């Protein structure tokens, strides 16, 4: 099992125990921002290039935001237009890290430059949405969520 508590950041970009009021996650042309008005403690992990860097065979999302006190985890993928690939990346990351999230509300966020509506009707998209109890959002260019 890969424990988040034992993670040692090698990229120098993970932000553990952050209480910033706005915590961004950026893609090339996309951005997700977690608004943290009550300054809760948030762990922001760079998944693909740090947390799971050694898992080269696995698909991984870009970011993970862990709000331990609320038991909420956000799996973030900043993407061009391949929504189905983003779905696979979030799904795979959840499967790899699931031991860390018993009792958590899991949320998936896909921020893309373009959304093709047929992609939102595929079996894989619907299954991930079901796995996350409806907490899967796909948005163009920019998305903000508040905790």
Give an overview of the whole structure.
The protein is α/β, with parallel strands linked by helices and 147 residues long. The protein has one domain (11-146). The protein contains 3 helices and 9 strands; from the N terminus they run ββββαββαβαββ. The chain has helices at 47-51, 83-97, 123-131, and strands at residues 15-18, 22-26, 31-35, 42-46, 63-67, 72-79, 105-112, 136-140, 142-146. Strands 1-4-5-6-7-8 form a 6-stranded mixed beta sheet. The longest helix is centred in the middle third of the chain and has 15 residues, at 83-97.
Quick structural summary:
With 147 residues, the chain is an alpha/beta fold. The chain has helices at 47-51, 83-97, 123-131, and strands at 15-18, 22-26, 31-35, 42-46, 63-67, 72-79, 105-112, 136-140, 142-146.
How much helicity do the residues have? 10-25%
What's the count of strands?
Answer: 9
What's the alpha carbon Rg, rounded to whole Å?
A: 14 Å
| Class per helix and strand makeup | alpha/beta
Report the order of strands and helices.
Answer: EEEEHEEHEHEE
In round numbers, the mean pLDDT is 93
Count of individual domains: 1
Strand content: 25-35%
Distance between the termini: 28 Å
Helix segment count?
Answer: 3
